[in-house]
Amino acid sequence: MATITEDITTPAYDGPFRRPTETQKGIVSWLTTVDHKRIGILYGCTSLMFFLIGGSEALLIRLQLAHPNGHVLSAEQYNQIFTMHGITMIFLVVMPLGAAFFNYLIPLMIGARDVAFPRLNAFSYWTFLFGGLFIYSSFFLGGAPQCGWFCYAPLSTMGLPTTIGTLFYALGLQITGVASLVASVNFVTTIINMRAPGMSFFKMPMFVWMSLVVNFLLLFAMPVIAVALFELLFDTAFGTNFFNPAQGGDPVLWQHMFWLFGHPEVYILILPAMGIVSEVLPTFSRKPLFGYTFVAFSGVAIGFMGWGVWAHHMFAVGLGPIANSAFAISTMFIAVPTGVKIFNWLGTMWGGKLRFSTPMLFSIGFITMFTIGGLSGVTHSIVPSDYQQTDTYYIVAHFHYVLFGGAIFGLMSGIYYWYPKVTGKLLNEKLGKSHFWIMLIGFNVTFAPFHILGLQGMARRYYRYPAHEGFDFWNMVSTIGAFIIAFSILIFLINIVWTHLKEQPCGDDPWDARTIEWSIPNPTPHYNYLEIPVVHERDDWWHKKYTEDEQGNLVPALAGASEEATAHDEHAEPHMPRPSYWPLVAAAALPLFGYGVIIQWVFGAVGAVVLLVGIYGWAMEPVE
Amino acid sequence: MKPRARLVAALACLGLLAVGCAKQAPLSTLHPEGPIARTEYGLWNVVFILAVVVFVLVEGAIVFAIFRFRRRKGDDSAPKQTHGNTRLEITWTIVPAILLATLTFPTVTTIFSLARAPKGAMQIQVQAQQWWWKYTYPKQKGITKQFTNANELHIPVGRPIRLALNSADVIHSYWVPALAGKQDVVPSRTNHLNIEAPHPGTYLGTCVEFCGLSHANMRLRVIAQTPSDFAKWAAGQAQNLHMPTSALGQKGMKTFLAQQCVGCHTIRGTAAAGNVGPDLTHVASRETFAGGIFDFNTRNLRKWLTDAPAEKPGSKMPAGVATMGLSKGDIQALIAFLEGLH
Predict the structure, then answer these.
(1) CB-CB under 8 Å, A333 with B79
(2) CA distance A179 to chain B (A)
(3) Backbone φ and ψ of B121, nearest 5°
């Protein structure tokens, strides 16, 4: 906790639950870390690994569909691969990549030394990792999920060659859901309680605002999907009839519960990127965020309205004209706060002095691509027109523009922007810019044709399509585009290695940034702030460096004002919480429960013991 | 060529390319034929044009800002600091809201009008199952005796058709883009879909809700006929089978009735009364078979009877040679029998 300042000369406790001491070096220090920055790095690296896996699955899909009647994959393999691509990108890439930013940045941006519950934070990460590995172990244990990422019942419970994949889906997402739920409690608590003195809600960086909205959404959305997943699990494993129409169950109930979670989930995926863009644009425009309160409140409005639009995923289900009309209207109007955000970003750039460094390029890429995805989203709300487009590639185009053109571009922007905060070095700009341009081109070559394919009637989730129906050409184009994207990702990876080997440290404030995390050294010291800062302004760090005269012109602040904040005294390092073994142990129990259901109850029994030990260790271990 | 002219030319080529492909796209949503599909297409046009206008304005403003407000080399001065503008905020909240509000009226009225049962509509029941469609034509005006058919829906032109859809297993979705938007087919519920074809022709359709292994192989077509052609067809479908006349055909019939075929298929007028696969009484009157993925011809029938699951993953029809133990001669005879079932 940020305020622990106990006497560090207390003799170390030596009992069975004693804590590890090494916090900086070696594998054990990573396994036992409770430092929000290291956990953030773990989240980031893990989700990038999953990104490569999910991307490889995408390439397999595109290879299969490059030609009519493709033979790269069998029908069952194709169904597994597209299902795993969706699950991976949503639950194991974009969500945890957002969590990586929450972890690393929220404490820094609010002037705290860690999150509210550091050990719980470690537990979140390990749970996420084990959940992801659990889902992927399905490939070796009877077959990966093949029900699609929304896993509609009763197909998922009884209509597939094997339902073992559905079990992995239900249990695996339950586990990663625990990670998200626990993390959301942690971040909400952290943001509400641990802001530095003076940082009122309306002085928080916009990224923290958006994080707050996302974590509230997680807090309320994860229980919904948890219930749904348990019902799906019970139907599949134990023969209950929640969704079994033959016994009076209702398959549409699953869809309602899934999308009641699933639509807030869409905002869970996109709002972190919106927060990042709201930080990057002001820095590189050298102007404050235009309409700060409107951007914040439109984020909150999206958070609330996001709960009232779920059935637009179900316009063709047959809910009746009244429900369809209501959800059409709510869907149309959720475009309003989203538009407000886009206009305010434009207002931020307007009249600025734009520097097109890589983070800025990715942020502008985000706005331009997200606008396309947003507009195609509005077309879905016109229900009669959506009767034609739903479940075609037009929808696939839409959500890739939102989640790739939107979320991934935004998150990439954040990676380039805060990379020096983590490593002390700037990623190479030349490689970064080629990464951006190639990815932008590859992205559009891949996904723009999906609009045309969808309008031409190509249905989703076809493992093959016949020749002579007008699908050949654009599918080939799209496959070429997918490999262009893959090439851009390769450049990104090369950039990381190159930067590690060749680049020089970049100093503490390489972008002339605005928010207080740039007032401390790069890379961030493990205690973050030597002294908890006192915040006076929105964009406090900027106002330490510059002041505005009455006409809105910028004048440098008194010399020395900024140095004062970075003054560093080696002798008074704050005392930070010790690492702990127990979050890792407790998290390891969860996949064992999963295997207990799927393989053998013995695994579950072992899991129960491990969980008990983990929780006892957690509770009994000393502060030191 | 000036850059702008070049851009226009490039866009025109791209447009032509798109249209050119669409011409050969029988499932295209951009070539509506029936009145319902036309109504939906009309709304699409409105929202599409609106979206394009907004797209051009917003992206244009972004591109303008990128060029106009880029930092010039050597310019380290700071821009004027603006924090917001309440009047602007209210404008760009209210204008899009009004724009969207105008869209709600045609949207909602169309939702309701499409859901209404049209007067004088022909009723046809559609049952979806993995991975084919079963149609039941109940006795009504124009149909003197109830009969069933598979995958190919015959309808009379100019008369609204009301489909009552349900599913025997998982969720499917019924879609004939040229005639109407899709309707999910949900087990335990009866959903309705109106379609209407203005002139005779064949309209392709397909299942568009992921329904398992052979989701891609669950296709369909609607064959619209003049009322008199339709009446003739319906009368033919209502009859029992045409007995085979050739010796080979008769052998095929014997084989069919002796094999497990009868457990799954119905052929009216014989002992075959199975309910798992399609009714084959008039299978040779269809253009396609096996969920509409094969043209009905000897070559395809041989492939299918030899090893159905290899052609259609997950097919409930067992492999003819490997599982049912059919000989080459059996298959030859079965083909002759099936090809006689007009």
Answers:
(1) no
(2) 29
(3) -75, 145
Global pTM value? 0.94
Given an 8 Å threshold on Cβ–Cβ distance, is B103 in contact with A384? no
Smallest Cα distance from B229 to chain A, Å: 28
Per residue, the 3-state secondary structure of A135-197, as one string, reads: HHHHHHCCCCCCCCCCCCCCHHHHCCCCCHHHHHHHHHHHHHHHHHHHHHHHHHHHHHHCCCC
Strand B172-176, strand B180-185: pairing: antiparallel
Those residues whose C-beta lies under 8 Å from the C-beta of residue A69, and which sit 6 or more positions away, are: A464, A465, A466, A467
> What totals of helices (H) and strands (E) does chain B contain, helices first?
9, 12
Estimate the crossing angle of helix A472-502 against helix A36-65, to 10 degrees. Answer: 150
Whole-number Å distance between alpha carbons of A556 and A546:
4
Cβ atoms A40, A103 nearer than 8 A: yes
Identify which of A379, A456, A459 has the shortest CB distance to residue B47: A379
Sign of CA dihedral B314, B316, B321, B327: negative
Report strand pairing: B219-225 vs B152-156. parallel
State the nearest Cα–Cα gap between A240 and chain B, in angstroms. 17
Task: Please report, for residues A225, B244, B284, the alpha-carbon distance to residue B252 in angstroms, rounded to integers and kept in the order given.
Answer: 54, 9, 14
- The rounded radius of gyration (Å) of the Cα atoms in chain B is 28
Question: How do strand B201-207 and strand B172-176 relate by DSSP bridges?
Answer: antiparallel
Gap between the terminal Cα atoms of chain B: 62
Q: Which one-letter DSSP state was computed for residue A30?
A: H
Locate B312 and state its tokens.
């259609």
State whether A321 and B27 contact (CB < 8 Å): no
Minimal C-alpha gap between A370 and chain B (Å): 11
Which of A317, A324, A401 would you mutate first to test chain B, the one with the most B CBs within 10 A? A317
Question: What's the CA gap between A35 and A33, in Å, rounded?
Answer: 6
* Helix B298-306 and helix B328-339, axial crossing angle in degrees, nearest 10: 130
**Are the C-beta atoms of residues A130 and A96 closer than 8 Å to each other?**
no
Interface of A with B in 120-149 (CB under 8 A): 147-148
B112 contacts on A by Cβ (under 8 Å) = 321, 325
DSSP H or E segment with residue B154:
strand B152-156
pLDDT tens track, chain B, 342 positions: 455 555 556 665 566 555 544 457 899 999 999 999 999 999 999 999 999 999 999 999 999 999 999 999 888 888 999 999 999 999 999 999 999 999 999 999 999 999 999 999 999 999 999 999 999 999 998 899 999 999 999 999 999 999 999 999 999 999 999 999 999 999 999 999 999 999 999 999 999 999 999 999 999 999 999 999 999 999 999 999 999 999 999 999 999 999 999 999 999 999 999 999 999 999 999 999 999 999 999 999 999 999 999 999 999 999 999 999 999 999 999 999 999 999
Interface test with B, best of A387, A394, A452 (most B CBs within 10 A): A387
Structure tokens at A546: 């510059």
Does the ipTM exceed 0.90? yes
β-strand pairing of A554-556 with A546-548: antiparallel
Match 């989703």 to its residue by tokens: A460
DSSP A491-552: HHHHHHHHHHHHPPB--S-TT---SGGGGS-SSPPTTS-SS-----STTHHHHHHEEE-TTS
Question: Dihedral sign, CA of B42, B43, B47, B48?
Answer: negative
Residue A75, chain B, CB below 8 Å: the answer is: yes
H or E segment to which residue B184 belongs: strand B180-185
Using CB atoms, which residue from A148, A252, A343 is nearest to B92?
A343
How many other C-beta atoms lie within 10 A of the C-beta of residue A142?
15
Q: Which of B210, B215, B221, B311 to mutate to test the interface with A (most CBs of A within 10 A)?
A: B210
